Amino acid sequence: MTDQPVGGASGVQSLNRAFELLERLADADGTLGLSDLAAATGLPLPTVHRLLRSLAAGGYVRQEPSRRYTLGARLIRLGDAAGRSIGVWAGPQLRRLAVEVGETANMAMLEGDAAVYVAQAPSAHSMRMFTEVGRRVMAHCTGVGKVLLSRLDDSAVLRVVRRTGLPAMTDNTITEPERLLAELAGVRQQGYAVDDGEQEVGVRCLAVPVEGGPGSIAISVSGPSSRLTEERIPQIVPVLHRVAVDLGAELRESVAG
Predict the structure, then answer these.
(1) Domains of the chain by start residue, with CATH
(2) What are phi and psi of 95, to 5 degrees?
(3) Which of 18, 167, 173, 224 is the most exposed place for a label (fewest CB within 10 A)?
(4) What is the pTM of this model?
(5) Do residues 135 and 116 make contact, with C-beta atoms less than 8 angstroms apart?
(6) How many CB atoms within 10 Å of residue 23?
(7) Do the beta carbons of residue 87 and residue 133 sit within 8 Å?
């Protein structure tokens, strides 16, 4: 990834700078030019150009015909592997959540414009919700998706909406950008999101964010509306928050270690 040996302080510095460029491209939610990246990182233009050339050669970034840069396809494989690893690691906490609430627990991450389920702990009920790990869902109509979108500012949310639209999955789905922004403002204020039959009729989902992870992470519980009633929401949300806090602490410890 550099023109110099990786060993030693110069190699570590080059790696750190390369990762910073990748982070800046991820934060940009689109493409950035050479001068944009230099301004954002404070690095000299020749350094940015050299690092981008190495990252492009490895498939980690891609240069568009406009000569602007975006993230490369090779990162997808790394993201998938990281998501699976996090999902396996989070299994015990999700199983704890499923037992305490009595409904299926899920973990999801934001990948591009979609929420991707990376782990699940099923409910013990014979009638329970099942979501295949690895499934991508639109963010505007799911509890985890709303939580993940709420971590973005409104302008970034609207860019997502312009790319994906707001298709109606049920009669309850939010299909107007203004309503979605108002919903996300409520999620930020109250600290949790509700999918009330917006993706699937008769299913309710409650979701909260996990702080401290590598990117945006959310956990949720979902079940039939007849069991996961509105009256249970005040009892379930604190359980979700306790598990999210524990997961976040474990994530920060693993990163620090």
Answers:
(1) 8-72 (1.10.10.10), 76-256 (3.30.450.40)
(2) -65, -40
(3) 167
(4) 0.71
(5) yes
(6) 12
(7) yes
